[in-house]
Amino acid sequence: MKLITTTEELAHFCARAHDAPYVTIDTDFLRERTYYAKLCLLQMALPGPDGADSGPAVLIDPMAEGLSLAPFYALLRDETTVKVLHAARQDLEIFYIEGGTLPRPILDTQIAAMVCGFGDQIGYETLVRKLAKGNVDKSSRFTDWSQRPLSDAQLGYALADVTHLRVIYEKLAQRLAETGRAAWVAEELATLDDPETYLTRPDDAWKRVKTRNESGRFLAIVRELAAFRENYAQSRNVPRSRVYKDDALLELASLKPASLDDLGRTRLLLREARRGDVAQGILTAVATALACPPKDLPRPDTAREALQVNPALADLLRVLLKAKSDATGVAAKLIASSADLDARAAGERNIPALSGWRAKVFGEDALRLCEGNVALAVKGERVEVISLTP
Q1: What is the pTM of this model?
Q2: What is the mean pLDDT of residues 116-130?
């Protein structure tokens, strides 16, 4: 079981991958102690001439002294080779943040499995069991991948994340071709292909902080405190919770501290945050928010809350969604969210479930149901859509 530790070895394998129809990829990383994920191990596998599971598979040590991942990033940009990953969101974030590269073309087997009838956000181990007829040794799941040397058990566990993936990919690709749903998966992958998906802008960080206080001045303080925390965490590569957690941020927004003595009276703020750069950053953020002109105060997004949901119609839409999910084998969660159904039941039309492939699967009948042009009927164990118009 070879662990690649030099750029030359990596370039040699990537040269072979450039000639392959696809390459399966996975990463192992740590994020508990940093803002950005620390890439600790990279795995790749290629199909072989005698079948999906007969090709070469390698482990790459990105922590090895002198090793450059440039050949790997060049492979990601090669549009003749499909890059196959499972639940790729965090892997792609690493590639974009560290290498400035997003792989194209890509196939996320978790998304493909949701389209092919395997349920909501199916795990890799389940797909291995159902499609590859194999098992994954879970004993190394909670490994500290930054420690060296890695044991044979750890390396074997990591390699299995890309070797079984070859069989999974080929079987899912066949199903997508047979059902004509490859374009559906491509629509879903558009978000993963957008660099904005992986950027956290400090000025927008406040929108992730949950609060029921709708005061513009209070929200201005939340905005400034969240922006400072994000900038500080990014610049020092520490988790934002290490600076201060959301509950402490909301406490600060309520207390409006103006001095170090005021910070000392907080209950939730970490002791380290009551002095030094963090303390000064907090005081500056609060002062900036208090000086913000009224016209520049943030406004809460109350549009969704103002919607008058028809509960009976929302229930009917849920029945329709379940029927469509059962009939097509597509995960209900992928077709429409609960919030989307409530929005449609309130008259909203600008929702994902009414566009693209979702419109054909669910959205068109959802609109007809809301307009009174179809009814739902139970026939045996199935729910059927009955047209009420000629």
Answers
A1: 0.90
A2: 92
